[in-house]
Amino acid sequence: MGASHKWCQTGVPSDPLLFSLYINDMGREISEGIEGAVTGDRVNRVSHMLYADDLGLTTNDPGEMQTMLNKLRKYAEKKGLTVNTAKSEMVHFNSKSVSPLQNPFTYDGVVLPEKDRFKCLGMLLDRRMNPKIAEEHAVRPYMAAQSRIPEFAKSHDL
After folding, report:
1. Do the beta carbons of residue 71 and residue 30 sit within 8 Å?
2. Suppose 110 and one of 63, 84, 85, 98 were both cysteines; which one would form an S-S bond, judging by CB atoms 3.0 to 4.6 Å apart?
3. What per-residue confidence (pLDDT) applies to 7?
């Protein structure tokens, strides 16, 4: 999600705070009447996760997902915000189905692609919630850096 206002410029220290204040009511508006996704304790539910200008919508009900997407479109329009549908994806966690949805999710008429995994805050999450995939993804940069240590030490006479 991005702001289309002229007053929000990249690199200005106050802008993240201003943006957060500007969208402070978004979660409440898009999740009103929505149950959200069951969490590990089966009591608490989560309908959305917001970090800076990234938003994740979660639910166990496909109808609720499309409802939240529709509410998000109305909210963004009201606030003068844009949603980058080219960066928007759908992942069906713990789904046994590998076939595309009969009724794909859309945002403002744009069909959102269905993926097997996505990256969130540097973590790779797959639809089966396989910790091995997340672990391998996290370890890869460490292993690459570790392999360069001897070369670095040699070039710096260490």
Report:
1. yes
2. 85
3. 44
pLDDT in tens, 25-61: 998 999 999 998 887 787 888 898 888 788 888 888 8
- pLDDT of amino acid 37: 84
For 127, counting Cβ atoms within 10 Å of its Cβ (0-12 exposed, 13-18 middle, 19+ buried), the class is: buried
- Which sign, positive or negative, has the C-alpha torsion 65, 69, 75, 79? positive
What are the pLDDT digits (tens) for 107-118? Answer: 999 999 888 777
- Residue ranges of alpha helices (H) inside the chain are 15-22, 26-31, 62-79, 131-155
Tokens 């710096």 belong to residue:
156
Both tokens assigned to 85: 């549908």
The token duo for 40 is 């590990």
As a whole number of angstroms, the longest Cα–Cα distance in the chain is 64
State the Cα–Cα distance between residues 41 and 34, nearest whole angstrom. Answer: 18
Tokens of 114: 């269905």
Cα dihedral 130→95→36→138 (10° resolution): 20
Contact in structure between 23 and 54 (CB atoms under 8 Å): no
